[in-house]
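Figure 2 data, in text form.
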Amino acid sequence: MTNFQWPVRVYYEDTDAGGVVYYANYLRFFERARTEWMRACGFEQDQLDQQHQLLFAVRSIQVDYLSPARFNQALIVDTQVNQFRGASILFLQTISLEADQSQVMCEAKVRIVCIHAQTFTARPIPEFLKQGLLKHV
């Protein structure tokens, strides 16, 4: 499966008192990369909501923090689809230094679920969307 990469710069606001990226901000970086992956696949999440009453929500996440990222570092968020199910997608994501992608700072397994925008109940990923996303996997 192909990987999607999205660059991230660590801003001062991303760091804690120790000068390293605050642990919760890695989740924001992962979220941005998944959003940009969908955009690169040709789908805007606000349009999916407006036209199909479809949203995605994180169902579960497992994160391993391996090495601290610091202020002003250029990072790469690598996103790979690992599994499609009826209503969910499992992503494998890593954050590494842009200059040395073998130096992984953080890695995660993230399962997102397709939900109905009004009821927030799980629903199968519509075929048009699944086929469109699979073209980029």
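Caption note: The first strand starts at residue 3 and ends at 9.
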